[in-house]
Specification:
alpha+beta; Uridine Diphospho-n-acetylenolpyruvylglucosamine Reductase, domain 3; Vanillyl-alcohol Oxidase, Chain A, domain 3; 4 domains; 11 helices; 16 strands; 27% helix; 22% strand; globular; oxidoreductase activity; FAD; cell wall; FAD-binding type PCMH-like superfamily; flavoprotein
């Protein structure tokens, strides 16, 4: 969105603000906003002899600044919450060029964040990962039954265990992938899975024990032992990608007939996949008012709709965007309502945009991203940036009448 504007605008390139300073006790680190998640993970793991990590996203190429400030999440969120839940302080510059600390934090809509003080978290000597893929059925259990069971247990199972369900299709057939990470050994993981999710039939050979830092590569679908962990320091994309992301929150289990209707639409729109990310655990313990991120207790899982294409031009984009919209529409009866909640970091102008910098326009998408926190954010914005200097298509608006 930074590159779209009908008036003169400025883009700040944070690429070279990338220093990472880890304190000697290994409890915290100062991270500049241009550092990538891969750089953070690599440096923290090396400095701590693989005994510390940080709960953030699974994509090492993400820039820390945008990821943190939008509520970035990863596969340790059920244990430790979001990246923003593990922020201690920040160094920012406001619209008046003052350098301030956390008391005025906001990002994007309020200020420029130069650096973040993050709280590092302990990780075990070994974690266990797995990825079980199934088409049609697994061991006689249908994909529908597996997805239904996943809904029953994913947000209630041991907080050390995160299982993402990814759904995609090929040749009119839906494929399900159950990808997980357990903060412990495979013996304990199998004990939990056999008790809580025996239908998946996870076995010892599918469980891989490794250091936490190496699990980052596993979640990138890099087979164990085929690449050094230093590959996560690569800032150069392997190929040009165009993409669309949307999001939804599910608060009640989707029935089996509902799942089957979703699978049917997904099988007819093969450019779209869905990742179902479980909540519960620490995510249900942090109050919705603690940070701007409101999607806490009451949510079973979040859906990410993904569509990627590699050819420039409106034709390729239009097809993928249309497919994404069709799948999203098919899922609409089963997700949150009034508002239909959305995740800020998947900036989605389909849910509203602010072309005239008005409070009314901003509220349309604002309550979907921030729910009841939206009004508080407007109050902060009105106080710290009354001239609306920091703005974009989905920024927090100023309430000019206040």
């Amino acid at each position: 969105m930074s590159y779209l504007s009908t008036v003169d605008f400025v883009v700040l390139d944070m690429f070279n603000l990338r220093s990472i300073e880890i304190d000697p006790k290994l409890d915290t680190a100062w991270v500049q906003s241009g550092a990538t998640l891969g750089e953070i993970y690599y440096n923290v793991a090396n400095k701590s002899n693989n005994l510390r990590g940080y709960p953030a996203g699974i994509c090492p190429g993400l820039g820390a600044g945008g990821h943190f400030s939008g509520g970035g999440y990863g596969n340790m969120m059920r244990k430790y919450g979001l990246s923003i839940d593990n922020i201690i302080d920040a160094k920012i510059v406001d619209a008046n060029a003052r350098v301030l600390d956390r008391s005025s934090i906001g990002a994007a809509s309020f200020c420029v964040v130069l650096a973040w003080k993050i709280k590092l978290v302990p990780v075990p000597e070994k974690v266990t990962v797995f990825n079980v893929e199934t088409v049609g059925n697994r061991g006689g259990v249908t994909t529908t039954d597996l997805a239904a069971k996943w809904q029953e247990i994913a947000d209630k199972i041991d907080n050390d265990l995160f299982i993402r369900l990814t759904l995609s299709s090929s040749n009119k057939t839906v494929k399900a992938s159950f990808m997980g990470m357990y903060l412990g050994n495979s013996e304990k993981l199998l004990e939990i899975m056999n008790a809580k999710f025996p239908e998946l039939g996870l076995n010892k050979t599918e469980c891989i024990e490794m250091k936490w830092i190496k699990s980052v590569l596993f979640w990138l679908s890099i087979p164990p032992g085929t690449a050094p962990t230093s590959v996560m320091l690569n800032r150069i994309p392997q190929k040009q990608i165009y993409l669309k992301r949307k999001s939804d929150y599910v608060q009640n289990p989707i029935s089996k007939p509902g799942l089957e209707s979703i699978f049917k639409i997904l099988s007819e729109n093969e450019n779209v996949s869905m990742a179902w990310n479980p909540y519960g655990g620490r995510m249900s313990e942090i109050p919705a008012t603690e940070t701007a991120f409101p999607h806490r207790a009451g949510n079973m899982f979040k859906i990410q709709y993904s569509s990627n294409w590699f050819v420039p031009g409106e034709e390729a984009a239009s097809d993928c965007l249309s497919q994404t919209e069709r799948v999203s529409e098919a899922v609409s009866p089963y997700v949150s309502k009034n508002p239909r909640e959305a995740f800020l970091n998947y900036r989605d102008v389909d849910i509203g945009k602010n072309l005239n910098s008005t409070y009314e326009e901003g509220k349309v998408y604002g309550v979907k991203y921030f729910k009841n926190n939206f009004e508080r954010l407007v109050q902060v914005k009105t106080r710290v940036d009354p001239d609306n200097f920091f703005r974009y298509e989905q920024s927090i608006p100023v309430h000019f009448n206040r």
